[in-house]
Amino acid sequence: MDFLSIITAKKLHQELSAEEISCFAKGAADGSVPDYQLAAMLMAIRLNGMTARETADLTMAMARSGDMLTPDVGGIPVDKHSTGGVGDTTTLVLAPLVAACGGKVLKMSGRGLGHTGGTIDKLESIPGFRVSLPEDEFVEIVRRVGCAVVGQSAQLAPADKRLYALRDVTSTVDAVPLIASSILSKKFASGARAIVLDVKYGSGAIMDSMEGTLALARAMVDIGAQAGRQVTAVISSMEEPLGTHIGNALEVKEAIDILSGRAGGDLKKVSLFLGAQMLVASAVCPDEETALNKLSLALDSGAGLNKLQEMIRAQGGDDRVCEDLSLLPQAPFKIPVPAQGSGFLARMDTAALGRAAQGLGAGRLRKEDVIDPAVGIVMQKRIGDRVNAGEPLAVLHARTKDSAAAAALAVQKAITLSDIPAERPRLIDAVITQSGMRKL
Ligand code: URA
Ligand code: CA
Fold it and tell me: If you compute the radius of gyration of the chain from its CA atoms, what whole number of angstroms results?
């Protein structure tokens, strides 16, 4: 097929056929279409969009560009994906809880890039934990324990790998059909039959408006409908970091604190809500209420914490971290960041807080950077809180005093105080499934 004529068709707003779209995905995966033509095609899609049918065809074509797993895990394989957050470690809380309730959580996760953290980096802060497992061992752990979390193998959706790298440098990241197909092609290829998407809105989110957020969520639910997979989208707030801890070992600690009943808050609420959607989407529970009750029991009884311990052990990690948090990497300096004025906390620039943690060493500036598992930020205040001058806004966990000084300024700048009481952002805004949208 002549790829130039396919680019021309998209330029002229014509709808592409399944064959033309498959030619695009194949050409990206096998290298037969050069970068400059792929780049032109990406920009044509960014400017002229894709229909729901085209988007679903692109998703399936990218999924089929590499291995397609069909794992036998003794139930419906379920996965959860977040469009990217800060202090967002729902996976480490909900995967063991869902497993304790009988779900089969087959999770392939990414590393952190930019201001958002990655589950794989967080898990690597546990001594001995293996994020790379042979496929049969991964599937065996999901079947036996109920959950396993590994990095994505290179053989999965290679078309996405090439296109994603080009999008970064061609200003085509923010295109709904490209984001939706990129996320779901990898989930479909990994063998998930039920997928719960946590689509973020707010200052730390991938889409900068609520309209864009809803359009992305709807596009992904539509792809699920066309592909015969159960896709549920939850719209939740990234107006502030979800948990209080930002950083790799720090986020593992917060997950263990929640599973031990020592901590609560928004991270716990969103984890339970997403977990409930996973149990319903994978047909373990008949409805949300039953699922939420079951998850609360698993949390209160300690069954969730036991599952996390089992998973860590199965993946070669030191499971004693669940009882002794001092076995996690610790930063040498713990430095409070004082508020410079008084008032009500009105706004946070969540992406800037993520970048401040990145500056301490918790994230990467470039793909090849090595992260420091111990460092990060523990927030002391949330939107709506009353703040007095000199009170700590956050505590920095730093490797050096110099890195802490830069991060302290960034944290102060990322937080806006106001004289009038501020309203709390809506934590969970809506749930979208094939049957429509439910506002919460
Ligand atoms: N995450 C992905 O995997 N792909 C995108 O395009 C955006 C976020
Ligand atoms: Ca995440």
Answer: 22
pTM, two decimal places: 0.95
Residues near ion ligand 2 (CB < 5 Å) are: 82, 88
Is 289 contained in some domain? yes
pLDDT in tens, 283-308: 999 999 999 999 999 999 999 999 99
Q: Are residues 249 and 381 in the same domain?
A: no
Structure tokens at 249: 């070992």
Same domain, 357 and 251: no
Structure confidence at residue 231 (pLDDT): 98
Pairing of strands 104-109, 147-151: parallel
Q: How far is the CA of 243 from the centre of ligand 2 (A)?
A: 11
* Helix axes of 265-281 and 248-259: crossing angle, nearest 10 degrees: 70
Q: What is the CATH number of the domain that holds 378?
A: 3.90.1170.30
Structural domain includes residue 180: yes
User: Is residue 24 exposed (0-12), middle (13-18) or buried (19+ Cβ within 10 Å)?
Assistant: buried
Total tally of structural domains belonging to the chain: 3
Strands (E), 83-146: 104-109
Measure CA 238 to chain center: 12
216-266 pLDDT tens trace:
999 999 999 999 999 999 999 999 999 999 999 999 999 999 999 999 999
Active site residues: 81, 160, 167, 182, 186
- Asked if 239 and 258 sit in the same domain, the reply is yes
CA angle in degrees (0–180, nearest 5) for 218-219-220: 90
**Angle between the N-to-C axes of helices 176-189 and 35-48, in degrees from 0 to 180, rounded to the nearest 10:** 120
Clarify whether residues 135 and 274 are in a common domain.
yes
Q: In a mutational test of the pocket of ligand 1, which residue from 55, 164, 167, 168 has the highest number of ligand atoms less than 8 Å from its CB? A: 164
Q: Which residues, 6 or more positions from 132, have their beta carbon under 8 angstroms from its beta carbon?
A: 150, 151
Any domain includes 204 = yes
Q: Report the residue among 195, 197, 199, 206 best suited for mutation to probe ligand 1: largest number of ligand atoms under 8 A from its CB.
A: 206
Q: What number of other Cβ atoms are within 10 A of residue 45's Cβ?
A: 24
Alpha carbon of 112 to ligand 2 centroid (Å): 8
Residue 151 lies in a domain: yes
- For residues 20 and 136, state if they share a domain: no
Residues 38 and 167 in one domain: no
391 with 337: CB under 8 angstroms?
A: no
Q: Return the bridge partners of 150, or none.
A: 108
Contact 236, 428 (CB under 8 A): yes
Domain that holds residue 35: 3-49
Rounded to an integer, what distance in angstroms lies between the CA atom of residue 222 and that of residue 229?
10
- What residues does 104 pair with on adjacent strands? 77
